[in-house]
Amino acid sequence: MSATDPLPAFSRAQLALRNGQDRDEIWVAYNGYIYDMTNSRLWRNGRHYEHWAGQDLTPELSAAPHTERVFERFTPIGILLG
Question: 0.70 cut: is pTM over it?
Answer without folding.
Answer: yes
